[in-house]
Amino acid sequence: MISNANSAKHRPAMPDWYESTAVYMQPNLRKAAWQCINTFIPYLALWVVMLYAVHQGYSYWTVLALAVVAAALLVRIFIFFHDCCHNSFFASRRANTVLGYIAGILTFTPFADWRRTHGVHHSSAGDLDRRGVGDVWTLTVGEYQQASGWKRLAYRFFRNPLFLLGPVSVVLVLLIQRFPSKGAMKKELHSVLFTNVAILAVIGLASATIGLKAYVMIQLPILLIAWAVGMWLFYIQHQFEGVYWARRENVDKLLVALKGSSYYKLPPILQWFTGNIGLHHIHHLRPRIPNYNLQRCYDATPALQAVEPLSMRRSLKSLCMNLWDEKQQKLVSFRSVT
């Protein structure tokens, strides 16, 4: 009882304007359907054009150029998948599950298993005592200084942007997500198995029709580019100058949303491709707001507009911020502690 009372002291009531944001949690079938039309159809059309280019012997650079656009659309499809994990894209839970599994097959991500780990991420974001599930590996200065030489080396490799956006994202999408996450239950295990079987079925069908080589030449670059972009977005959402972290007894959920999650202000075209996920401070405040309502919520809520935006240029500084300094309450570079 004493523990609960102490925890309550660090969980102040939400401000008055918080309740007004609830209206944006209402799914809109028309908007959801239009997003599916303006994303899945162009993605499939690009796939057909790329297949034609491969079979007609066009330069592979042409295929790769088209793969960049297709990858951007696949990132957008992943945002729909993400909304379905929160049961926010459609009003119907079944519809969210069906679309979630379809989008999961396209993005090589098991729906139920990812939904569980992502839920843990939302409940533990900004909490230094609950790191390790659904987040980017982050050590404190003290933990890094006390780590073995091998762990330090591994951490340095992991935090290197070329390694994080390259090999790490490749291993994640092609290998790690082929297995259930730690703590997965029956439903999560089945989702991993279903997704893997579906992916193998698609590969088998492709091999029997368009040819395995053509499939790999098209799908692999799309997948790797999309996941590199996705890894960057996930990284920058909680790894930036001025980010908020705290020990469990001091975690303030409002600060986790408004200061621990970035408002990544992107150009309109990139905001469209990334499904408004740059408004991540709103997403952590109200996870049930579908992507197509995030901008409306922002435009109608002055308190959310007061959050300092993170520009693309400023976001690059985050690549040099590698450790959490508990004394200074900020992310610092390796250089500052060695």
Show the helix and strand layout.
Elements: H1 2-9, H2 16-20, H3 29-55, H4 60-85, H5 93-107, H6 111-124, E1 139-140, H7 141-146, H8 149-159, H9 161-174, H10 186-209, H11 212-236, H12 253-258, H13 268-273, H14 280-285, H15 291-300, H16 302-305, H17 312-315, E2 323-325, E3 330-332
Describe the structure.
Strand 2 (323-325) and strand 3 form a beta hairpin. The chain has 338 residues and is an all-alpha fold. The chain contains 17 helices and 3 strands. Strands 1-2-3 form a 3-stranded mixed sheet. The protein has one domain. Helix content is 62%, strand content 2%. It starts with a helix and ends in a 6-residue tail after the last strand. The chain has helices at residues 2-9, 16-20, 29-55, 60-85, 93-107, 111-124, 141-146, 149-159, 161-174, 186-209, 212-236, 253-258, 268-273, 280-285, 291-300, 302-305, 312-315; strands spanning 139-140, 323-325, 330-332. The model is unreliable at 1-10 (pLDDT under 50).
Features of this protein?
globular, 17 helices, 338 residues, three-stranded mixed beta sheet, 62% helix, mainly alpha
Question: What's this model, at a glance?
Answer:
With 338 residues, this protein is mostly helical. The protein has helices spanning 2-9, 16-20, 29-55, 60-85, 93-107, 111-124, 141-146, 149-159, 161-174, 186-209, 212-236, 253-258, 268-273, 280-285, 291-300, 302-305, 312-315, and strands at residues 139-140, 323-325, 330-332.
Name the shape in a single word. globular
Strand order across the biggest sheet?
Answer: 1-2-3
Strand content: under 5%
Alpha plus pi helix count: 17
Runs in which pLDDT lies below 50 for 5 or more consecutive residues are 1-10
Major sheet characteristics = 3 strands, mixed
Number of strands: 3
H and E order? HHHHHHEHHHHHHHHHHHEE
- Percent helix, as a range, is 55-70%
Q: What is the domain tally?
A: 1
Mean of residue pLDDT values? 94
- The radius of gyration is 21 Å
What is the CA–CA distance across the termini?
A: 43 Å
Structural class: mainly alpha
